[in-house]
Structure formats: structure tokens, C-alpha cells
Amino acid sequence: MVSMNYYSLVLVVVALVWALAAVAGDPDILGDFIVPAPMVGMPPTNITSDFFTYTDFLAAKEYMPWPPQYFIVIKANMEVFPALNGQSVSYDMLVFPSRYVNPPHTHQRAAELLFVQSGALSVGFVDTAGKLYTQVLVAGDIFVFPKGLVHYQYNQGPNPATAFSAFGSAAPGTVNVPASVFGTGIDDAVLAKSFKTDFWTVQKLKAALTPPPK
Amino acid sequence: MVSMNYYSLVLVVVALVWALAAVAGDPDILGDFIVPAPMVGMPPTNITSDFFTYTDFLAAKEYMPWPPQYFIVIKANMEVFPALNGQSVSYDMLVFPSRYVNPPHTHQRAAELLFVQSGALSVGFVDTAGKLYTQVLVAGDIFVFPKGLVHYQYNQGPNPATAFSAFGSAAPGTVNVPASVFGTGIDDAVLAKSFKTDFWTVQKLKAALTPPPK
Amino acid sequence: MVSMNYYSLVLVVVALVWALAAVAGDPDILGDFIVPAPMVGMPPTNITSDFFTYTDFLAAKEYMPWPPQYFIVIKANMEVFPALNGQSVSYDMLVFPSRYVNPPHTHQRAAELLFVQSGALSVGFVDTAGKLYTQVLVAGDIFVFPKGLVHYQYNQGPNPATAFSAFGSAAPGTVNVPASVFGTGIDDAVLAKSFKTDFWTVQKLKAALTPPPK
Amino acid sequence: MVSMNYYSLVLVVVALVWALAAVAGDPDILGDFIVPAPMVGMPPTNITSDFFTYTDFLAAKEYMPWPPQYFIVIKANMEVFPALNGQSVSYDMLVFPSRYVNPPHTHQRAAELLFVQSGALSVGFVDTAGKLYTQVLVAGDIFVFPKGLVHYQYNQGPNPATAFSAFGSAAPGTVNVPASVFGTGIDDAVLAKSFKTDFWTVQKLKAALTPPPK
Amino acid sequence: MVSMNYYSLVLVVVALVWALAAVAGDPDILGDFIVPAPMVGMPPTNITSDFFTYTDFLAAKEYMPWPPQYFIVIKANMEVFPALNGQSVSYDMLVFPSRYVNPPHTHQRAAELLFVQSGALSVGFVDTAGKLYTQVLVAGDIFVFPKGLVHYQYNQGPNPATAFSAFGSAAPGTVNVPASVFGTGIDDAVLAKSFKTDFWTVQKLKAALTPPPK
Amino acid sequence: MVSMNYYSLVLVVVALVWALAAVAGDPDILGDFIVPAPMVGMPPTNITSDFFTYTDFLAAKEYMPWPPQYFIVIKANMEVFPALNGQSVSYDMLVFPSRYVNPPHTHQRAAELLFVQSGALSVGFVDTAGKLYTQVLVAGDIFVFPKGLVHYQYNQGPNPATAFSAFGSAAPGTVNVPASVFGTGIDDAVLAKSFKTDFWTVQKLKAALTPPPK
């Protein structure tokens, strides 16, 4: 049973609404940072410097087998690091085993600024005029993938590669092209016509890219 | 007479352009509308109501063979209709012959609000969690494709279909997925690994989707 | 009586607050789309493709007497079509009987991009320098009314006219000039001085434009 | 010597201007302030603190007859005070003789925050639901007119009134309702139907509000 | 005990969430103004014109001893004047006794447009290139402090000075430099190295600027 | 030959630049990326993938003496890496010798997301309520400094430290607090009053922080 007083509930809801209303007026946030929702009926959250610190990259590095066995993306975005909410910035840490690829994808809400920390990466993006830009990056290089365009990274070499990507949004979003197109059940006729191919090829691609039922 | 050196002029113009490239003022335009560049040394352009009128949809309808033979998109965006610059809105007119598809694509800068004027369309989009939303639309229906997500339209029926799409940007941008991925020369290894398929399939798709050299 | 558990309520409110907080950080939404508020204590709303579909234009066409008897505006904005929230686009369908006018008005939050579907319309807008731009549009024509300026449409001809207007906002807003000025009780002296006229004329206009008490 | 053809230069400049018209960078300016265009072929403008200072309010006060004879608006916006470009703020100084009105108008790009410095003002605005909000303000009072809504100020009393209005845009824009509607040549039939009145009344209002030919 | 009906609570929360969701989609608010949170289970707040009126400047003037004894800032921002929420504008009233200073500070979210109402002020700001701009302002002068830069105002003269500052944000924010740097407990070594001075000077400044424990 | 008068050309270019200075279009760029100004009279710049690649971090690492002798910041922002223009993201590489500090500063246009690559850093920021948040970061840790607030980093340990900072703007801007306040010639009286100290202390700080004349 809800045992809190009626007026307390009113006050709590009003306080929440005011807090939120203040977040939306001007395009950016209207305070220093966005405090996570205080617990109803409990004392206000005590925000400390730990709220602004994120340690999962460190943890990942310590517990990751080396050389890595799979392509791994560790995200530091507002979903896992709430202090980023309203600050318009986030990171990804990318770990590529030899010969692994980060498949063609887009980010809807941000450009990607990739810094290669170790190893080497072959990267590319396609502009809306259909021109492909490719580059071979070595450790220390930076490359920018413009906002919303299809791009990929590929570790062609024999050694692992690690990279950091910065985004100008706390929630850049990712649309994985192979999975979106061939892994979601889009009608075979649509795909065959779109890719100017036959049903057999479409079904082969779908079989490879459709995630198994859980 | 202009007596300045050629290279000085180049430097001055480049400096001006760079200075401006960093300029945005308020987020929106700071006047009623954006006047196209007046001609150098000529009297200022005389803006009339024709500047705000666009007649290519009408022209297209009158001269288009019926039933249509190809999938056609006629755009009313700021590239062809300069008055839209700064007004954050544009239209596409879409004409689908029977059995034709508008292949999976994204718009980087706007959601698409599609109105079916005649015929019927099977449409779909995929959200970033990999869920496919499909719908069969008839004349009079409206459907919204959220910003940045992969979507398609398909005229499954025996008759032509026409539709209008509104966008919340004067330059929504389009990334055609099959053409971007298989029609731009991305390395076969990247594509084979990304689509979890063999080189033969990649080459077959590239052959179908790569535009012929001009 | 509220029979839900205290901790369930806490979780529900926290979830709501987090969902909303994520909507406001960056200028645009930070997800694919905005899900309507899940019901308290019930399973999360099951979003289907119907959520992205709007059928009131179709319904209106089927049940509207023809020829139409009144000037009719059917809106497809976020108030009636919640999926538009955060997508920055909306539609109006306008139906004009012969000799009917859509009175001078402004939209505070968007330009209007009008497409004439059938019939003909005389349209106009006034820029902030006091210059009137008028145009006669026929079926197939497009016209843009710049953001925030006073504009009108008028069906001068003997036949009905239908048009669609796209807006670069999910909630463009409308300020109807005659109703705002003469139908809201503004003091007679203010209006007489503003319109440089006499009290009798003001009172006559107010009588015509003030809505009857409900 | 510049040896390029005149028409080539025209084309180059036009191309640059069109390219730039589409350029916005980040939503706000990307520097401390926007420097006015340096003169071609001259040394860069020497920006001093005078660039950030505006003295026309002071000048107006010194040379204005008192009591004032007309309603006067002195603007401190980016057109007359270029340092405001990109700073999203501006002022108006308003001087009302006794019994004078600032007629119903809207600002497309900003709310207005009015501070009454001396005298008293009757003010009002109408929301989009058609509700009128009126207030009598005395010296020292502040009132906010929300963005884009029709509003007016009226000095009902026997003494002059002065006020300052702040706007959250360097170029808020003004649409004067009586002048826009009755002073620009909109067709009599459109106005008669819109205001539900007769041609005679329309012509009388037009005669009063149409500026004399220059 | 919460005695409201389960379905009422659902409706109230859903209404609140919808109200808020509408605030965040487009960069600006999507309504005329933001209504403060209606009380849960009570009739909707009756918004009157008093909601848009702010009288604390008037009250301050009436009750302030004259000449003033301290530097005083009275704010009219959205924290104390909720109608400003979403309207992107606010005011400060500044009262300077003779020889008083408003110490170096920044506003994170807005430029400041200062109008000197009475007396005179010496003002200055520093751009990011380290150039100081100073000006002596007299009553009637306006000065703009660009967004985010360090600035101060100083009343050098024998008489009090009053000024009004407009901001292009309803919540401009203030970072007081002396208090932030020397009044918050930053490590002595950090401060000594940053200011290229000795521990004794740092401790002296900290002693002067650290607020006493409450 | 260009036969127009020199002053006419100046006027035309100035007019164009002023017209453009007010132009912002949609809040973001309206193309894939911003191409640097093509040379006047030359073929359009041939944009290659090198335009999107930045190698100064790599170069810096190779040529920097180790251990480092000074605190070094290498920037990858739009000033030195033009492809970032319009992409709303940038990087800084920070190299700290043992016992070196990055003095208290603010960024006007972005939050800072710091990743410690090697060594350890003591960091802190002060919110607008005057609360100091401090943290000791080790290699692999991430910390966010909210937008516009005063912050510092300090390498307390015996070894060098390197870090990368991502910003959600291509031009975040930096206001160095000690240099802005004590190194720019602000009047001694203003500083003495602001820091509640004596002229001798102000002059000592100014002597230490004022850059030598060039």
C-alpha cells in the first residue's frame, strides 16, 4: 500500500515536473548538469564526484582477454553514464581483433571523431553523392566520419587495434546497415528489387544476418 | 579599375569565406526569408511572388507518361526552390509504377511524413533496436518515418501509386543504402565480413548496383 | 484506492522521469521516437506500426459532404498524431468551398509549404517591410509562406479547392488575426487608436468576430 | 591585375554565396563575437570597446522634446548595433505620450520582456486559444509577452510613459497587425470575408492605414 | 494515505507526462507558454495575467535604503519568475554604491546587454585571445558583454549607479570567478601553480574569499 | 577584364558578407560536410580523404621530448582541422609533466569529456552553487566537466600523464582564468575589491601572470 501522505506525493510530483520543465525551455539544459531523478519519499540524491566519473573502459581493459577474440564496442554514453545527459558529448572504445570489421553503419545524431590508439585501421565513408573516401590510419591518427553518412572500420593487419571515438551527442545512435536491412524481416521482394538481385541471394543474406530467435 | 593583385583577391575572398563559415547567428534565420545573392555590379534582385512559387510538380504531372515507366522522385527542396532556404521544410513527389520499390534509405536531417495520394503502398522502417514496423497504406493515409532510420516504400499492387512526402528541413539529405554500400567500391573483404557472406555474392551485388562509368 | 506497491510507484515515477530527461538534453530528441507515457502499473505500451499511421484525412474525405459547405482544416499535428512529437514535421488538409477564405493568420513556429491538390487558390503574405506578395495557384502548384508572417488563402473560383500544407514543426501554432484582435475583448480605445478608426467601427467588427458565449 | 572575365567573377562570387547560404556550423556562433566584414584590400578592422557600446538611447533622450509628441520606438538590435550579431539579445526603448498606443503586433523570433521605467501602461496579449490577458503596469513592473503572440501596450494616463523591452534575439522582428492587414493592398473581398464585414468598412480601414505614396 | 482513485492517478501522471513531452521535441517550446505543474487531484491552475507580471524590482526600489549600502543584484529569471520558462529572456537589476564592484564573472548561457539607468560604470571584458576591452558608461549607455567571457562592472564615482541587464536566456547562469577559484577549497598547490604565486598568497586570498561556515 | 570600380567591388562584397552574417538556415549544416572555399578562378578544390584525416597528434608524439618538460595542449579543432566545421566535435591531447597543472579555466561552448591515457590526474570543477567536485583519475578513467564551469587538472604524481579530451563543439573555446583576470591589465582597484585583497597582492599576481611585451 502507498503509505505516504497525500500532500507529500503532490509535492514530489510537482518538484519532479518543475525540475524537468527547466530542462526543456532553451535548446540546451538550463542548469549546470541534470541530476538523476530523486527517489520518491527519500532524501534528495547526494551527487558526488563519482557521478561524473566513468570506469568501465578501465574495467574492460583489465578483464579483456588479449589478443581479443571478438570485435568489441564499449560505450560511454548517457545510457550508461548519466552525467552526460545534457552535455552533448560521449565516447566509444573499439577493440578490433586482426581481420575484424565494424560493419557499415550510420549515427543519426552525431559525427564520429575516431582516434587510433594502437594498431592500424582501414576506414571509409560514402557521401550522399555516392563518393567513397578511404584511408589507412595508424596509431595516433584521427579521422572524422561526417554526421549521418554510411561508414566502416576494418583491421586488415595481423595485430589487434584499439580506437576511441568521440561524438558530439550524449546519445549518437547507431543504425547497423547489414542487420537493419537483412536481419529484420523486410519482405524478400523489397530486398530483391532494392539490391537488384534474386530471391535466393536475399534469402542467403537473411539467413546469415538474422539473429537467432531467443 | 580593380588594381589589386590576383592573389590578394584570392586571399581576401578566402578569408571572408572562412570567417563566414564559422558564423551562425541565432539558430534560425534572422530575417523574413533569405534573398538569393544579388548579382555583382547589377541592381539588387527584384524578389516577386514567383520566388515563393514552385511549379515543377505541375510540369512533371503534365509531361509524365501514364502509367509511369520508372520510379520517379521530384524534389521541392532548397536546391531547386531557393525560397525554402531557412524555412526548414520541403516536399518530395513520389511516383511508383506497379511493383516498383523505393529502396531502403535514410534521411540524415529530417523525419519523413508521407501522404499517399493515389494507389497503395507497403512501407516499413527499422528502429535502432532492430524492430521492423510495416504498414499497408491506401490513398489518404499518412505515415511518419522517424528521423535517421532505414525505411522503404513498395507498390505491391497492379496500379501506379503517387505520394507526397513532407520533411522538416529544407535539405533533408538522402543516403541510398544499396547504392552506398554496394555501388561505391568498398573493399570486397569489408563487405563479405560485414554481410557474413562470400566474395562471389559481394561481387554479384556490386555488379548489379555499381553505376556504369560515364 | 491506490493498491500498487510503494516500490512499484517509485520505479514507475523514476522510469517516467528518466524517459523524459532523455528527451531534453540535446536540442533534438535523443531516441528514435517519443513513446507515449506508459500506463502506471500496466505493462509497457506496445508500440506498433499503427502508432506511426494517421487515417483522419482519409476518414474526413469519405464522410465530408461534397461540395463542401464550410472552410475546413483537418490537422495532422502532434496533438492528434502523437508519433510526430520530436519529428519536427506536420500536415494540414484544407478544404475551401467556392468563395471561402482562410483569414489572415500567422504560425509562430514554422513556415507553411502549401500544395494545391485541386481547384485554384489566390494566396498572399506580407513581409515585415509591409510588402504584399500575391499569387494565383492552380492544382499542382506549391507556395511557401515564410515563418511568422501574416498570410491568407482565398478560393475565388466557382469550384471547391483542396490543399495540403506541410510545416517544419510538429506543433506550428496558429494566430488567427481577426479573431485575436476583434474577438477577444481588447479595449475599444486600444483598437480604435490602433486601426485609426472610430468606436462604432470597432464595435461593429467586434460584434461580427466575437464568438457567442457558450 | 585581375585578369579574369567579369562574368566569371560574378559566377564565382554567386557560387560562394550560395555555398555559404547553406552553412550554419554549430547552432551558436563559434567565436567570441562576430567581426564586421573587413574592408577588401584594407587592413583588418580594429575592433575597440566602442564596437560593444551603443549610445543612441542616450542621444534620443537628450534631443527628444518633452513631453513627447509621438509614440517612439528606438531600437538597439543587430541592424543598428552590429556587436549584437550572434549574441541573441536586444533592446527597444519605448516612449508613449499620454493616450498613445503601440498597436497589436507580433515578434516572430522572440518573447518580449517589458520593464516600465516611468508612467503607467495598460498591456495585453492573446494566446492561441483566444484568451486575452490584460494588466495595468506601473513604473518598476515587468511583464512578459510570450513569443509570437499578438500583444499591445497603451498609455491610458495623463503623463508620458517610458519602457524598455528586452528580447532573446538580436533580430526579434515585428509584424504590425493593422498595417500588415489593412495597409498593404490585400484584396477587399479577402478582408471583408475575413473580418465578416462589408466592403465599405474595409475601404474605410484601408484608407486610414495605407501609408501615403512616396 | 493516498485516497485518490487509481485511474485518476493514472490520468494525472499521463497528463503531466504529455504536457512535458510536448515541451522537448523541437528546440523551442511547442506551446504559447509553459504552465506550472497543475496540482495533483485539484482543478487545473487558473493562469491569469499576474503569472506574466513580476513586481520584485518595484518592491526592491521601494524598500531599499538610499544611498545603497551594498552591491545588490535582483534577478528576474525563470527561477523567481516562472513565466519566463521557455521564453529565452531575463533581466537583472544591479545597484552599485559608490566604489563598489561586481567582481569578474561569466554567464554560461547568455550574452549580457547592460543598460545604465543612473550614475556611471566602468566596465570591461576579456576575449579568449586575452585582449581587455574597457569602457566608461554614463546613464543611457548600453554595452554588450559577449557570451561566456570574463567581465566586470565598477562604480568608480561618488554617486550610486543603477543598471539593468538583459540576457538571451531565462537562466543565464553565473560563475563568480574569485569565489569559484578561491572560495571553494581547491588545493593550495593547484592554485599556487596556476597563479604562479606562493602558498602564503593563496592562503591569504582563500581566507578573504571563503564563505564562513554556516 | 574587371571594369567595375574598386569601391563598388568593396561595397558589393561587404554587402554580401553582411547579408550572410545574418544567415543560419537550419541549426545544423545542410550538406554532408563544409568544403573549404574553392580558389577564385581555379578548378574546385579536390576534396580527398586526407581532408578528413588529422596527423598532428601522431607528429607531436614522435617529436616530443620524453619525459615532457612543459604542460602541452595539442588541439584537433576546426581551426587546425577544417573538416570538423559543422560536425560539432573536437579533441585536445594533453601532456602533463610531473607536478604540472592545467590552470582553472572554462570552455564557453562545450562540456569536456576527459580520458586519462597514461599516468594519473587530480581533477576538479566548481558548480554555480560554489560546490567543488574533486577526483583522482588513473589511466583508463573518464571524467566529464559540465559545460561552462571552472575546472582544472593536476598531475600530482612523479610520472608524466597524458589525456585526451573530447568536446561537443568543433570550437569549444577556452577562457584561462588566471591569465584573463591577472594578465590583461584589469584595473588594480577592480581586482583588489573583487578578490578582497590589497594592491600589493594584486600587483604581485599581475607581475607573475602578465605576458612579457613582444
From TrEMBL, chains A, B, C, D, E, F:
One GO cellular component term noted in the UniProt record for this chain: apoplast
Xref: CDD domains: cupin_OxOx
Any one GO MF annotation of this record: manganese ion binding
Keywords from the named record: Apoplast, Glycoprotein, Manganese, Metal-binding, Secreted, Signal
Principal place of residence: secreted
Binding residues annotated for oxalate, in chain numbering: 102, 107, 112
Protein location: Secreted, Extracellular space, Apoplast
General function of this protein: May play a role in plant defense. Probably has no oxalate oxidase activity even if the active site is conserved.
Subunit organization: Oligomer (believed to be a pentamer but probably hexamer).
Name listed for the protein in its UniProt record: Germin-like protein
Species of the source: Triticum aestivum
Taxonomy of the source species: Eukaryota, Viridiplantae, Streptophyta, Embryophyta, Tracheophyta
